[in-house]
From TrEMBL:
Cross-referenced InterPro entries: Methyltranfer_dom, SAM-binding_MTase, SAM-dependent_MTases_sf, WHD_Rv2258c
Any one GO MF annotation of this record: methyltransferase activity
Record organism: Negadavirga shengliensis
Taxonomic lineage of the native organism: Bacteria, Pseudomonadati, Bacteroidota, Cytophagia, Cytophagales
The protein, known as: Class I SAM-dependent methyltransferase
Methyltransferase domain boundaries: 171-287
CDD domains attached to this UniProt entry: AdoMet_MTases
Any one GO BP annotation for this protein: methylation
Annotated keywords: Methyltransferase, Transferase
Domain S-adenosylmethionine-dependent methyltransferase Rv2258c-like winged HTH: start-end pairs: 24-97
Length: 357
């Protein structure tokens, strides 16, 4: 029989109240980001709700109620005497599009996106199975924005330099494959930067691939192609030793057959080729993941998206937090012999693996 610790109970109750407030604040921060309110207020001094609404071209009554949540959430400062509001520069540095990779507001969008499938996930708790990609409203859109600020912003400065000499090879002309390309923002950017190289993107989602093709057409990028493809049999169907450079950006852990995909990547890679793999930096050990700065967030994303979309394909359901140890195990089983783990200072959620045969 456990002994009841009253102080422990009171502290936990207090933490639950904090959680309730923080969860609510996440939704309102998401609205502030999507509506452009943070970007608008970052350019203003103390202003009334009417002035803020007019500048943002939004309805004042809704803006005023949103400001209430921002003030009580200690995000925005309030001058009661003048009835005016201010977004401090120190807060804007983590809430606006100008903040780039530091913009935490982008991530708050996942809360609302995942909330839409809560009922369906509950059914999975009861009956097993999973939810397919097309059940997730706006997920690819939010994921593209997330990737845009964490990957695109540092593609040339931090990511490509992880592989010595890679930029020179891309300039000279090589063949690259991006597996699980999503909406294609990364590969379209690379294709525009390196017109003498050829780029191929593959993804299970027809919706995502359609967006990728549309962006390529709009930007006039012609050295790229996108293919809708189920990669469950990639270990057998992948072209042999065709690509000089292959990438995956947070794409392996939610595959139905992740080992088959990795074997296919190994098969497709030329003998002297490079595979660059971005994946979540969990350890796979709860006692260690407790110390991860966004561990709870990542396990939530895993439970309500990464794991379930894999299970929907009758897959392994590894989940986002499968960990570096298991990642290296799978890479070795796929046929790779050289695996180097890298971390980027601006990216608290991922490891970057430089992998060779």
């Amino acid at each position: 029989m456990q002994k009841f610790d009253t102080l422990k109970a009171e502290n936990f109750a207090g933490s639950l109240i904090d959680t309730l407030n923080s969860g609510s604040l996440s939704l309102m921060i998401s609205l502030g980001h999507r509506s452009g309110l943070f970007d608008t207020m970052a350019e203003m001094d103390f202003a009334t709700s009417h002035e803020i609404a007019d500048s943002a071209k939004l309805n004042e009554r809704y803006v005023r109620e949103w400001l209430g949540a921002m003030v009580t959430g200690r995000v925005i400062e309030y001058d009661a005497a003048a009835n005016t509001y201010l977004l401090p520069a120190e807060h804007a540095a983590f809430l606006t599009r100008k903040a780039g990779a530091d913009n935490i507001a982008v991530f708050t969008q996942y809360v609302a996106v995942l909330g839409r499938v809560e009922d369906d996930i509950l059914e999975c708790f009861k009956n097993g199975g999973g939810l397919p990609y097309d059940m997730f409203h706006r997920f690819h859109e939010v994921m593209a924005e997330d990737s845009g600020q964490s990957v695109l912003s540092s593609l040339e400065s931090h990511i490509l330099p992880l592989v010595p000499g890679l930029t020179g090879k891309l300039k000279a002309g090589i063949k690259m494959l991006d597996v699980g390309c999503g909406s294609g923002k990364i590969i379209n950017k690379l294709a525009s930067l390196f017109p003498d190289s050829h780029f191929t993107g593959m993804d299970l989602s027809g919706e995502a691939v359609s967006k990728a093709r549309s962006e390529a057409f709009t930007k006039g990028v012609k050295n790229v192609e996108f293919i809708v493809r189920d990669l469950s049999d990639f270990h057998q169907s992948a072209p042999k030793e065709e690509f000089d450079f292959i990438t995956t950006f947070d794409a392996i852990h939610d595959q139905g057959k992740p080992l088959n995909v990795l074997k296919g990547i190994c098969r497709s890679l030329k003998p002297d080729g490079i595979y660059l793999m971005q994946d979540i930096s969990g350890t796979g050990h709860l006692e260690k993941d407790k110390e991860h700065p966004i561990g709870t967030f990542l396990y939530t994303i895993s439970c309500m998206h990464c794991m379930t979309v894999s299970l929907a394909q009758d897959g392994e359901g590894l989940g986002a937090m499968w960990g570096e140890e298991k990642t290296k195990e799978y890479l070795s089983r796929a046929g790779f012999t050289s695996i180097q783990t890298n971390k980027l200072a601006h990216d608290i959620q991922n490891n970057w693996y430089v992998v060779r045969k």
